[in-house]
Design a protein that fits this description.
This protein folds into 2 domains: 238 residues, no CATH class; 282 residues, no CATH class. The chain is 25% helix and 24% strand. Strands 17, 18, 19, 20, 21, 22, 23, 24, 26, 27 and 28 form an 11-stranded antiparallel β-sheet that branches. A 9-stranded mixed β-sheet has the order 2-1-4-3-5-8-9-10-11, with helices on both faces. A two-stranded antiparallel sheet has the order 6-7. A hairpin with a 2-residue loop joins strand 12 and strand 13. Helix 6 crosses helix 8, helix 6 crosses helix 10 and helix 13 runs parallel beside helix 15. This is Heterokaryon incompatibility domain-containing protein. InterPro entries: HET (IPR010730). Pfam families: HET (PF06985).
Length: 609
């Protein structure tokens, strides 16, 4: 059975020790989620949570049984009656969690199926799902059912469910006994660790108490050690260390997991999005890093379409449209580079009689890569180190200035930019704008309040769900060739490229939806494709085909020769197919900026779904 004295000591130390204050104790002082319901573990009924109450949260696998007790608008009054949650009416895991709370002297327990009304108004339920991040973060402890594959399995060692006995045997007269597994081994064998919904629960929980077939484990937000009932304390792994400091890491880890209902893909990620990147997101992509989040690829390079249940939509421009593991950004890039968005994105919404638009602010994105993540401060902390933040801003401003000189923004060039300059002079010019946002606004050449000229009212009427508008440079073509070209440095490696006349764009691996492209070509020989300019970047792509001379293009940009870092800027592109004014993503590519400019791309608006 569980050694409750030892477990209680782990939890108590985390709650009281000074070294845990900044990591584990601060979150618990945050304002309690409005409208929170909890289970009263002593009276065995559901209640509205008392102010600042201490509660545990349960993380478990639901399983396939739909008949197990759930809270609904029809039975919530009955479930609020004392004794309504008797042992025989509950799945074993939930009943054991109530017992565990009593052992830990915790009066309240939060369980999703009983504390969220499962048939509630969609808006109210959506609020609860977004609040799950706060619910787990603010719980005194999260109880994790590592064992079993459904809610009936129970928590081994707590009540009725016994732990598995260790293997024993003899050989040549020597008695042998198998050692219990470590925490990471238990996770590897656990169905709980493969489920989509449990990702946000373990990522956001402040303290976790895991119940396995062999023992209990304790983990908290403070870096350092795992507490193990058998082995004592030992170092943590880096399992989910970066999930909240990097959107890329969060999406990659989450999409490896499975969902019973594939249409839950965004609902099961809502808490992570809200906690990590704030309330502003659209179909799984945070608005404050939209220019990075739009550059996603399929890890296995296939594009099976996600089934949308009634009321759900998964647009082609969002990673949620594809079943399988997703990677944010190209897999072969050096993430030390910077990116400046060239596109103006606008989300349609309806306020009053007229359809309105929410413009997505141009953003600089986030640094990625192991070294950068190690250096990041805790979530939502401002970096006061000017030596770190200034270069990031300056280099991004320089990219905007260079792209503006090259005609990639539609705003009129001010006289201070339209000159030859050294890098140092351009840095000074780029800093004349009060902020990067102001520089972007002037480069775009259109005040936000006058967007009707770019996104005409007719295309905004009756937009289907999942719509987004984009204004940017583009190339239109009916015919293009997808072909393989030799790698510039590796003769045995071929690279897939898009050829339109003399223009070559290299396909970003894992981004091309060949099934969709072939389907479009078979259905309509006159269908049109476009390449849309997404961003200019100093990121270096490792895969590169052999093309004509790669001399400096700075003369085109009226710039003096900067150092080698800016010797060969790239442009990131989205390939879309367009029919009846509606465009759908079919791939991503990149090209040298100077080659793109030579094609004389045109500015226009697109309606993506």
């Amino acid at each position: 059975m569980v050694d409750w004295q030892k477990v209680s000591e782990w939890v108590r130390n985390c709650n009281c020790a000074a070294e845990h204050k900044d990591y584990c104790q601060a979150k618990l002082n945050a304002p309690q989620t409005a409208g929170l319901r909890v289970i009263d573990t002593r009276q065995r009924c559901i209640k509205n949570a008392p102010a600042k109450c201490r509660y545990a949260a349960l993380s478990y696998v639901w399983g396939s049984r739909s008949s197990a007790l759930q809270a609904t608008t029809r039975n919530i009054n009955r479930l609020a009656m004392e004794g309504s949650l008797s042992s025989h009416s509950l799945p074993q895991t939930i009943d054991d969690a109530i017992v565990a709370c009593k052992k830990l002297e915790i009066d309240y327990l939060w369980v999703d199926r009983l504390c969220i009304l499962q048939d509630d108004d969609p808006d109210k339920k959506a609020y609860c799902l977004k609040a799950m991040g706060d619910i787990y973060a603010q719980s005194y402890i999260t109880l994790i059912a590592l064992a079993g594959g459904d809610a009936e399995h129970g928590l081994p060692g707590v009540n009725k469910v016994k732990r598995l006995a260790s293997w024993t045997g003899t050989a040549q007269g020597i008695y042998m006994s198998a050692m219990p597994p470590y925490y990471d081994d238990c996770l590897s064998d656990s169905k709980w660790a493969t489920r989509g919904w449990t990702f946000q629960e373990t990522t956001l929980a402040t303290r976790q108490l895991g119940f396995s077939e062999s023992g209990v484990f304790f983990e908290c937000s403070r870096p350092g050690t795992i507490q193990d009932e058998t082995y004592g304390a030992y170092p943590k792994s880096l399992r989910n260390s970066f999930a909240l400091s990097s959107y890329r890491a969060a999406v990659e880890q989450y999409t490896k997991r499975e969902l019973t209902w594939e249409s839950d893909i965004l609902r099961a990620f809502a808490g992570v999005l809200h906690t990590g990147w704030g309330p502003g997101s659209y179909y799984g992509i945070p608005l404050n890093i939209f220019s990075d989040g739009i550059l996603w690829t399929a890890v296995d390079k296939y594009y099976p379409t996600r089934h949308a249940a009634h009321g759900d939509t998964f647009p082609t421009w969002s990673w949620s449209s594809v079943k399988g593991s997703i990677r944010i950004g190209a897999p072969d890039k050096n993430w030390r580079g910077k990116r400046a968005s060239l596109a103006t994105w606008a989300i349609p919404s309806r306020t009053g009689e007229q359809p309105a638009l929410q413009v997505v602010a141009n953003t600089t994105g986030e640094p990625e890569g192991h070294e950068k993540l190690i250096e990041r401060l805790p979530l939502n902390k401002v970096d006061d180190d000017k030596k770190m933040s200034r270069p990031t801003d300056i280099e991004t401003r320089l990219l905007v200035v260079i792209a503006w000189k090259c005609g990639c923004f539609s705003g009129s060039l001010p006289s201070i930019i339209n000159t030859r300059a050294t890098r140092e002079e351009d840095e000074k010019i780029a800093c004349k704008w009060r902020s990067l946002a102001q520089l972007y606004d002037e480069a775009r050449g259109m005040p936000v309040q006058n967007l009707d000229a770019r996104f005409h009212l007719p295309i905004r009427q009756e937009c289907p769900p999942g719509s987004i508008f984009v204004y940017t440079q583009s190339l239109e073509f009916n015919l293009f060739k997808l072909s393989l070209k030799k790698h510039r440095r590796l003769p045995n490696k071929d690279i897939l490229v898009i050829e339109v006349g003399d223009f070559v764009a290299q396909v970003i691996p894992g981004s091309i939806n060949m099934e969709r492209i072939n389907h479009v070509r078979e259905q309509n020989l006159n269908s049109y494709f476009h390449l849309l300019a997404l961003s200019v970047t100093s990121v270096h792509f490792m895969d590169e085909v052999e093309i004509e001379d790669q001399e400096s293009w700075y003369a085109l940009a009226r710039l003096s020769a900067y150092d080698k870092f800016f010797a060969s800027l790239n442009i990131e592109l989205m390939l879309v197919e367009t029919e009846d004014g509606i465009s759908r993503r079919v791939g991503l590519a990149w090209a040298f900026l100077r080659h793109w400019i030579n094609q004389n791309p045109q500015f226009r608006s697109f309606h993506l779904v």
